[in-house]
Design brief:
With 150 residues, the chain is mostly beta strands. The chain is 9% helix and 37% strand. The longest helix is centred in the middle third of the chain and has 13 residues, at 76-88. The chain is globular, with a radius of gyration of 15 Å. It starts with 22 loop residues before the first strand and ends in a 9-residue tail after the last strand.
């Protein structure tokens, strides 16, 4: 699914689930694009991002490695629990709007609306990757929210 968004807004609709870490974003609300590379040394580059509350960010995610990697956003406790579950079921596929799994050499994007000032964690939950340190953080700084009515 190279270059395709996992969250597509249907014409005329403005509904999406709000989660504790924000909500899927809409392409017409993107304020900027941030590129994140996933590497076989079990690192994200960059591993720390800073965004403002209210921003909708296009995360352009590129798998620069020779193995499948993924980026899943959540809180640290949920990611840890999910990483443990992935070890029991390594064939598990993620199709949630807060995640993206990429084959080697592929790229994709996540559109995310950061609704609250907080820290959002992200990680690769492929078996062994999380445990090897393939994690990062998005610091959502308090700022002017451009939230729109839905």
């Amino acid at each position: 699914m190279c270059g395709a968004s996992l969250w597509v807004q249907a014409a005329g609709t403005h509904t999406h689930p709000d989660t504790p870490i924000g909500a899927p974003g809409y392409s017409d609300k993107v304020t900027r694009t941030i590129t994140i590379d996933m590497q076989d040394n079990m690192r994200f580059v960059p591993a720390t991002l800073v965004v403002k509350q209210g921003e909708t960010i296009r995360l352009l995610v590129r798998n620069k490695g020779a193995m499948t990697h993924e980026l899943v956003m959540g809180n640290s406790q949920d990611l840890l629990a999910h990483a443990k579950a992935m070890q029991q079921a390594p064939q598990m596929q993620h199709r949630d709007p807060n995640s993206l799994s990429l084959a080697p050499g592929r790229q994709g994007e996540l559109l995310w609306h950061f609704t609250r000032a907080m820290t959002v964690d992200f990680a690769c939950l492929q078996p062994g990757h999380f445990e090897s340190g393939m994690r990062g953080k998005i610091e959502v700084a308090k700022g002017h929210s451009d939230a729109h009515a839905h």
